Amino acid sequence: MEFPNIFIGTDIVEIDRINKLLLRFGELFKNKIFTSPEQEYCESKSSPSLHYAGRFAAKESIIKAVKSSGYKYPITFKDIEILSSDSGAPVVDLHFISEWECKVSISHTKFYATASALYIQK
Question: For the whole model, what pTM was predicted?
């Protein structure tokens, strides 16, 4: 039996740091990091900065997992889109590669958002 190649990445972010970036740079920050659907999702929540922080941590964890696989090309934050399934679970859409898939889990407390990613060869 042959096992697939699986790479992991993890990240943690202070929610206050993301909130300060949102307050200082607003749309410039949002448009550089997040796609329109991601922004719509986060803005629909009662605490948008918490959800922006979770998606930021998710994107960082995905970049770490992808880079640990040996992928050498640049990856922008908007190359990675974190959407939500009907159940609310995060769904990853990688805009730069199709022969691999990525799964991510996002968690947060009052002060921190964290994410773990699996990058899996199909």
Answer: 0.94
